[in-house]
UniProtKB/TrEMBL annotation:
<protein>
    <submittedName>
        <fullName>Branched-chain amino acid ABC transporter permease</fullName>
    </submittedName>
</protein>
<keyword id="KW-0813">Transport</keyword>
<keyword id="KW-0472">Membrane</keyword>
<feature type="transmembrane region" description="Helical">
    <location>
        <begin position="20"/>
        <end position="49"/>
    </location>
</feature>
<dbReference type="Pfam" id="PF03591">
    <property type="entry name" value="AzlC"/>
</dbReference>
<comment type="similarity">
    <text>Belongs to the AzlC family.</text>
</comment>
<feature type="transmembrane region" description="Helical">
    <location>
        <begin position="161"/>
        <end position="179"/>
    </location>
</feature>
<feature type="transmembrane region" description="Helical">
    <location>
        <begin position="55"/>
        <end position="77"/>
    </location>
</feature>
<keyword id="KW-0812">Transmembrane</keyword>
<keyword id="KW-1133">Transmembrane helix</keyword>
<dbReference type="InterPro" id="IPR011606">
    <property type="entry name" value="Brnchd-chn_aa_trnsp_permease"/>
</dbReference>
<feature type="transmembrane region" description="Helical">
    <location>
        <begin position="135"/>
        <end position="155"/>
    </location>
</feature>
<keyword id="KW-1003">Cell membrane</keyword>
<feature type="transmembrane region" description="Helical">
    <location>
        <begin position="191"/>
        <end position="220"/>
    </location>
</feature>
Length: 232
């Protein structure tokens, strides 16, 4: 099989890039209604580049959350990217370290999914292909969020269009797939994790702010899930 390069990576990731556009515009409109400028949104998209994390940031900024809580939220929400990046390095074992860092910086759920799909059919994936896969999504997200912010000035009340529900809808979809995966591994495990999260939250909310209690209880649930996986 002929090796695929940068251009093929761009082409293979076009469907996911198109998906970024709709969510990116929705985010831009919501961010604009929260008082953020196109410059601020553009910098957020370039430096943070995390759809769910950026939605959460806007909501926390509006609610007046402190910087530490916002930082911890972004860290935890995007923590999965580190795990995806670590696995991606097992595919690019002969790629120079700096190129692996660049790929890891721009990897997302969608570009990782495209990578895994390609790896099923092609065991010799080039770094250039992965750069193309990452770059088209990065560019589409940045441009669509900025355009959405500029459009937001023409839409004074995005709630009328339901755009403020975009993040919730995204998480519902992720939650359904995650529940399906966890149920397949056993109801008992799912019950224990949910119980740990609930108990952790009820205890921590008496000691810290509710937003920080959510973060810490989520971390407890994640830790328990890893522990239970290790036992198997």
């Amino acid at each position: 099989m002929q090796e695929k390069g940068f251009r093929e990576g761009l082409q293979d990731a076009i469907p996911t890039a198109l998906g970024y556009i709709s969510i990116g515009i929705a985010f831009g409109v919501v961010a604009s209604s929260a008082g953020l400028s196109a410059l601020e949104v553009g910098l957020m998209s370039l430096l943070i580049y995390g759809g769910s994390a950026q939605f959460a940031m806007v909501a926390m900024i509006v609610s007046g959350a402190d910087l530490l809580t916002i930082t911890l939220t972004v860290f935890l929400v995007n923590l999965r990217n580190m795990l995806m990046s670590l696995h991606a390095t097992t595919i690019f074992t002969k790629t120079p370290f700096l190129q692996n860092i660049l790929m890891a910086t721009l990897i997302t759920d969608e570009s990782y999914g495209v990578l895994l799909g390609e790896h099923v059919h092609n065991k010799s994936i080039t770094a250039a292909w992965m750069h193309g896969n990452n770059l088209i999504g990065y560019t589409a997200w940045f441009l669509s969020t900025v355009i959405g912010t500029l459009m937001g000035k023409l839409i004074p009340n995005p709630q009328v269009l339901g755009l403020d529900f975009a993040l919730i809808a995204m998480f519902i979809g992720l939650l359904v797939f995650q529940f399906d995966a966890m149920i397949s591994e056993g109801i008992k495990k799912l019950f224990l994790i949910l119980l740990a999260v609930a108990a952790g939250y009820l205890f921590l909310v008496t000691l810290v702010s509710s937003s920080l209690a959510v973060l810490l209880s989520t971390l407890i649930g994640c830790s328990l899930g890893v522990f239970l996986d290790d036992k198997h």
